[in-house]
Amino acid sequence: MGKETWALRHSGAPKRCPHALRRKVAAIRDHLLLLGEGTGHSHYNGVVTDAGAKTREPVALIGILKDRRDFDRLMHRRWYRIPLAHAPRRRFSHLAFYQPASFGKRGKAIRYVAPVLGKMVARRRDLIPEEPNHPRADDRYAVFRVGKPLKLPEPVRNISLRRVTFAYTTLRRLFESHDVLEVFGVPPIERMMQKAFDAAGLHALPEFTVSGPDKRYRLDFAIFCTRGALAVECDGEDFHGTGPQRRKDRAKDTRLRRMGWTVVRLTERAIVKSPAACARRVHAAVTRLGGVA
Questions:
Q1: Are residues 292 and 229 in contact, defined by beta-carbon separation less than 8 angstroms?
Q2: Are 188 and 206 in contact (CB under 8 A)?
Q3: What pLDDT digit, counting tens, does each position of 75-110 carry?
Q4: Number of H helices and number of E strands within the chain?
Q5: Do residues 277 and 270 make contact, with C-beta atoms less than 8 angstroms apart?
Q6: Which CATH topology does 3-183 take?
């Protein structure tokens, strides 16, 4: 690690000082770029951004650390594996690591990033010889050798509890984000609707959990009315736009209606265009149910 980066990490500068934080971000980012040079994985992959233009910025793949064992292997053995059948096809220079709820207080966040130094294919039994009888011992994995994982200056938190899967982002966006939605360039549609509901005087309960006879469901918003309950779902295009997820959404709606709920689904496009118009649509549904209880 360069002296500048080391000094920033140990200088004792106030954590919330924006200038010190920006310098620290820049120093660590420059250090990562230096570590990644000459690895055979070009930083400049010409990836297409969400705006449709090409960028020559370094690209990071967001990977998932399922549990503490995966975390320990990353830190001590310096590799990360992905089932070969699901291995990414686009090139990338860095790996960032999302820690899910299984990590407790340190979960639901991206905390570490590392440069990719090389790639190979290996069977699970060769990677993890201490588990020879694992049911997937003979499965093949794409294995990425990485440099020392570096802790982000500030964790990128999953504030909206969005389902995180393998996805690409730029290294700059990763370092500048505070929310997983910002990393993926996704509009914060739930927060937009919360503000719209507040402005309209609608008492909507966010992230409300409904317990059914065989399953629990999380609603983006719940509004309890005089003649029933209203479920409001905000459908992001990248997640709810797939065929399998649409089928799951329809099955969820059917079960909720059987339990006495009225369901209103709002698309990302409609929310981004006019949160107020979406709030008026919800308000009309509330009126049909006799108003807020």
A1: no
A2: no
A3: 999 999 999 998 888 899 999 999 999 999 999 999
A4: 11, 13
A5: yes
A6: 2.30.130
At the topology level, CATH places domain 189-288 in Endonuclease; Chain A (3.40.960)
Q: Where in the chain is CATH 2.30.130.30? A: 3-183
Beta strands 140-146; 167-170: pairing state = unpaired
Distance, in Å, from the CA atom of 258 to the CA atom of 92, rounded to the nearest integer, reads 46
Segments of 133-276 assigned E as strands: 140-146, 150-157, 167-170, 205-211, 216-225, 228-235, 261-267
pLDDT tens for 108-143 read: 999 999 999 999 999 999 999 999 999 999 999 999
Q: Enumerate the CATH 3.40.960.10 domain ranges in the chain, comma separated.
A: 189-288
Q: Strand, coil or helix: what is 40?
A: coil
As given in the structure block, the two tokens for residue 65 are: 């650390």
Length of the chain: 293
Distance between CA atoms of residues 257 and 228, nearest Å: 11
Contact 235, 242 (CB under 8 A): no
The type of residue at 104 is G
Residue with tokens 């290294």: 171
Vertex 150, ends 51 and 10: CA angle to 5°? Answer: 120
pTM more than 0.70: no
